[in-house]
Amino acid sequence: MSAGSRPETWIKATSAGLFVEPGGFFIDPGRAVDRAVVSHGHGDHARPGHGRILATADTLAIMAARFGERVGHATQALAYGERLTIGAVSLWLAPAGHILGSAQIVLEHAGTRVVVSGDYKRRPDPTCAPFEPITCDVFVTEATFGLPIFQHPPDRDEIDKLLKALALFPERCAIIGVYALGKCQRVIALLRRAGYDRPIYLDGSLERLCALYRQRGVALGALRAIGDASPGDLAGAIVMAQPGVGPGASWFRYLPEPIMARASGWLSLRRRVRQSGIEIPLIISDHADWAELFATFRDVGAGTIWVTHGQEDAIVHEARRRGFDAQALALVGYGEDA
Ligand SMILES: [Zn+2]
């Protein structure tokens, strides 16, 4: 895959996002465009109103659930590994391991292969297909947790912290703050994997995407609306809610001495934990940590690393030190899904 075209001549960082010139399409554009390829359903990557959208069927289903009529004019689903030619570019999708439907976008043009990874992680996740390393010339990476201080602990240890607290205080319940898309369903699946088999209660804002995950074949066990719970059921119960929703919700006062927990990769920062007022921080991230970023660069065999968003300075510096040709693309508008 060497001696091909110089990819900076055909993939351009624009104000709307990455533009693949010989195919005439944008990747994860930040505003409505004529033709978009979307890596996954998080709001900073998937936006409504494009003319034509290409993505996995799961991502299109997530976008339809979130945007309804405004999803776009024409959608096309592409299965992982299915190849398509758009203009002078050959394109296919590979699993990114980030959330249900998440895909790396593999681009081949003039003898060069570029992989745009979107957001990705390397840990096993029961709710999505695992990241698949694709050999390439240029690997385009995020750097959300691109500092050496970020070392995500094993998920199982984090889930065990919560289950131990509930075992210790059986009269209390736990409320876990999670983002609605991806984190919520993954934490539920991890609880099930750890043997927690009671019904899990959901704040109303989480119900639709949990239902969608189940429709798409992800097992989540028994789920109940927290609004329907009788207070007598809630000792030892687990309630999922979006961060900040809990204490303001009408059902909150019925919870027996809730243990406040939250699942986020950012909770490895002690300052974040102190500010949030939570008792049990669950360091569970849907992004690669520092070591996993560099393991991935090695696994894909790319000589060149382009960094899209996050802690790009540290990653670029360290990648160059390790012999990669690395540069920041300075794309704006990406961050944690809100
Ligand atoms: Zn994402």
Low-confidence parts: none
β-strand amount = 25-35%
How many separate helices?
A: 7
**CATH H-level name of the largest domain... which superfamily?**
Ribonuclease Z/Hydroxyacylglutathione hydrolase-like
CATH fold-level name of the largest domain: Metallo-beta-lactamase, Chain A
* Whole-number mean pLDDT: 92
Bound compounds, each kind once, are: zinc ion
Can you count the beta strands? 19
Question: In CATH terms, what is the architecture of the largest domain?
Answer: 4-Layer Sandwich
Whole-number total of structural domains: 2
**Order of adjacent strands in the largest pleated sheet:** 7-8-9-10-11-18-19
Structural class: alpha/beta
Detailed description of the structure:
The structure is a single chain. By secondary structure, this protein is of the alpha/beta class. The chain contains 7 helices and 19 strands. It has helices at residues 57-67, 155-168, 183-193, 207-215, 270-276, 290-300, 312-321, and strands spanning 11-14, 17-20, 25-27, 35-37, 50-55, 72-77, 84-86, 89-95, 103-109, 112-116, 138-143, 174-177, 200-202, 223-225, 238-241, 259-263, 280-282, 304-310, 325-328. Strands 7-8-9-10-11-18-19 form a 7-stranded mixed sheet, covered by helices on one side. The protein has a 6-stranded mixed sheet with strand order 1-2-3-4-5-6. The two termini are 38 Å apart. The site of zinc ion has 6 residues, from loops.
